[in-house]
Fold this sequence. Notes:
The complex is a heterodimer.
Chain A: H1 14-25, H2 42-70, H3 96-101, H4 104-124, H5 132-158, H6 182-214, H7 218-227
Chain B: H1 8-12, H2 19-29, E1 40-43, E2 48-50, E3 55-61, E4 74-77, E5 80-81, E6 87-91, E7 94-99, E8 111-116, E9 122-131, E10 138-145, E11 150-155, E12 167-174, E13 181-182, E14 185-186, E15 193-196, E16 206-214, E17 217-220, E18 224-226, E19 232-233, E20 241-245, E21 248-255, E22 270-277, E23 284-290, E24 294-297, E25 305-313, E26 333-336, H3 360-377, H4 384-403, H5 406-420
Amino acid sequence: MLPAAGEPAAGDSWGMLACLCAVLWHLPAVPAHNRTGDPGPGPSIQKTYDLTRYLEHQLRSLAGTYLNYLGPPFNEPDFNPPRLGAETLPRATVNLEVWRSLNDRLRLTQNYEAYSHLLCYLRGLNRQAATAELRRSLAHFCTSLQGLLGSIAGVMAALGYPLPQPLPGTEPTWTPGPAHSDFLQKMDDFWLLKELQTWLWRSAKDFNRLKKKMQPPAAAVTLHLEAHGF
Amino acid sequence: MPAGRPGPAAQSARRPPPLLPLLLLCVLGAPQAGSGADTAVISPQDPTLLIGSSLQATCSVHGDPPGATAEGLYWTLNGHRLPPELSRMLNASTLALALANLNGSRQQSGDNLVCHARDGSILAGSCLYVGLPPEKPFNISCWSKNMKDLTCRWTPGAHGETFLHTNYSLKYKLRWYGQDNTCEEYHTVGPHSCHIPKDLALFTPYEIWVEATNRLGSARSDVLTLDILDVVTTDPPPEVHVSRVGGLEDQLSVRWVSPPALKDFLFQAKYQIRYRVEDSVDWKVVDDVSNQTSCRLAGLKPGTVYFVQVRCNPFGIYGSKKAGIWSEWSHPTAASTPRSERPGPGGGACEPRGGEPSSGPVRRELKQFLGWLKKHAYCSNLSFRLYDQWRAWMQKSHKTRNQDEGILSSGRRGAARGPAR
């Protein structure tokens, strides 16, 4: 997996951020297992599920610290500011029927694309003013998120799906307007963390669903035996 | 609250036409691009202020449909609603706020000043940065590990509390060679520290200083001039071994190896040994251990476990006149003194009551006496080792001598007790 080259410099570096995001999009697929005699995608789906739970846990403490850094009202439990700049964030919220009817490929693709975008924005969250500790926690989380992306790519490869490639012009560029104030930036940060959280909740369910689908139909075999009088 | 976002169903098809992101960008380009709801702008946006100063702010509503009013709006600062007497309506669409004698910002990301609609929803916000300019950092101290790198620490001025994010930058340059360099690896040994890992020159002094900058100003420390060779430290001595000295109950022998990283450089190392009894927290320090790799601890309690540590100071490296910097202590090594075979205090006649046969002051005086003897009496064979050998012999033969006539042993012990007074 190509590591993305370092953090973009703080300040007016949104062009560099777009470039970085483009690099992420062009990551090659990494097969999770050796194809010959492999146990199927089951183990890597399980691994991906476990990773989402781990990341969810990590995010809880990271978000707590970060929101305290932003200060009240951002760290208040019911805080619900307007979603102004966060329109380009991949939304995890989805209609239940639509979600259930997603085919495996689409389900995996949506997860992969979402985390690619989110990782990109997280890396741009290099607030100059944040403490060294906070920057370290963010960097650590980004690494873990990169791991999750790799894991999803592995599942897709095991199932024979190609990794989504971006169409030209659809690279995620979250360019704030020239008068993007610090307060607006704080709101964007808030929604980024919220959306990450929602995605991790949803992904756990996505991968749980995939796990169940991949399980061999043992029940059918038993019935068959019974029919033959065993 | 802005409405009219694409519905959730549209999101499930993750291949938006290329046009859509561009549209979104256009929409985002305009600040507060609401759609069909009131929005507002706070002025000033993200101001920086000195502690104690005042602030006049305004929240101007411009909604659509036009005619949106500032009636019913209110302010909060860091989540707390501000008293209504601080606000007043400037005109139909603008609410003003007057804050006086501001305190330092609650968080370094800025105080959150928010303008709310009547129903509590957020219309606009502004981050207030209230603090102090940095004061001169001071107390810069640096050390070099084995002459390979340089780590520096400093104290921020005003105990570091400027309420604003303050950036510290450690700069250095060779005294007669012009070019300023900036240290890059921060927070290596604490929050105000920096590590320069390579490309350090010897034999020419460095000038080192710290620059502190924040939104309200900057400050520079005094320049520290130092020579790398004067601030060298090294690793603690490896292979520290502590062992008994024959049957002597009150002594332990400590041996170590001089730190290998500096073994190629000419220097007179100084060492310090410290030791303590197992259950105690009081360390005893042996200070004058110069350029040796062994030492004998004396005056110890018999049958006791001792912890011993050694550290090294590479003083005088390459002819530096200054004391170097002490290394960390080596990992503690433990050893125990032999149990006393003699009867307890007051029991045996050869035991001076209450004290050990060779307590500290006795040994010191004896050492001085022997030194004097050597100088003035030409007894070149005399040495402290000889005294210890005699004592060891005394203890070993104590058991056998006990069987001898009592008078003889007490006579001898009397002689032995002479110096012990």
